[in-house]
């Protein structure tokens, strides 16, 4: 560190993912409240991205295309079958029905989120020891979890209302004074959605979701529907 | 719902294609695959150094994009850069999981670049490859000591301390080379790549 701010050398190493874990945490903690260093890191993003473009281009084997697209087609077939099953299933008043009572919605969302989060971690063996789950504090009957991974995280939500027109649900990532839009998504007919939150989410980072009139808003234009703070 | 043909999808810009991938349109994903799988595979191969592992990394990364609903946000750079970031993370994770990771760069900085004959290309892909060639040229113009440390970090997944030990140089020297090299790449970008 150089006085109040990290050395530029360290910011560059951070952008290249070349710091030791402890140093990385220091920079992450600092940038949560430093707009200047956040801007400096953002300015490095295009240069780092260029490195990935710089390798000699190879032709992937045709078998790879076949394998990937076969998986995609199988997913589509499974998804269609699941939708059909859900449509046939009679509606029942289970624990989700309790969200109809707003006075207890927040507390239940937290409790159920924690259970759901461990289910996610258990289902995904690739998450590794560094993955953790964070309860989502939600309103209006929405619940879910945020599974935090080393390079990206996954928000798994339920109870999302249907959208109209160009509306999308938008994920925002807030860190100190900086706020950036992340993914936007459309839930399935049952109100469930899983969406990736890219980048490393450090302690204190808050992930929020709003319902926006259309994609591409630079800042939230509607109230926050739910939030999760990484511990 | 109005069906969109493959030809129509192929005319869409990446940024307009991704919302269709997010809506689980397999044809849109196929177009996405055809545009970016080559670059993804090339980067994966550059990092993991084996065709089989590169195929696995590419498959996992592209399917994760598909299965996560393709949550691309145009405010955070191009679709290509976003995709390659995901591929790079997967490939480095693989390297770090392996006990004896041995990136090819350890022997010399000029191995950043590998040559392969180009096959028949679409116009768009040809332009992309030309751009990649120009970018490679810019990076090649870096002094070897700078391109080497940047390559070891980005393609090898090594920390600056590991690089300092590997090259038997002071940590401050390694950090300085990284900064100087990245500043030059940024300057090249500012000149209008």
Shape of chain A: globular
Query: Structural class of the helices, strands and pairings of chain B?
Result: mainly alpha
β-strand number of chain A: 9
Give the proportion of residues in helices of chain B.
55-70%
Strands of chain B, total number = 0
What's the alpha carbon Rg of chain B, rounded to whole Å? Answer: 18 Å
Gap from first CA to last CA of chain A = 24 Å
Provide the helix percentage of chain A: 25-40%
Strand ordering within the main sheet of chain A:
2-9-8-5-6
Alpha-carbon distance between the two ends of chain B: 40 Å
What Rg of chain A do the Cα atoms give? Answer: 20 Å
Model regions low in confidence, pLDDT < 50 over at least 5 residues of chain A: 90-131
Fold and architecture overview:
The complex is a heterodimer of chains A (231) and B (193). Chain A contains 5 helices and 9 strands. Chain A is α+β, with helices and mostly antiparallel strands. Chain A has a 5-stranded antiparallel sheet with strand order 2-9-8-5-6. In chain A, strands 1-3-4-7 form a 4-stranded antiparallel sheet, covered by helices on one side. The two termini of chain A are 24 Å apart. Chain B has 193 residues and is mostly helical. Chain B has helices spanning 6-11, 14-22, 26-48, 51-67, 79-97, 123-140, 144-154, 160-167, 171-190. The longest helix of chain B has 23 residues, at 26-48. The radius of gyration of chain B is 18 Å and the shape is globular. Chains A and B meet through helix 1, helix 3, helix 4, strand 6 and strand 7 of A and helix 3, helix 4, helix 5, helix 6 and helix 7 of B.
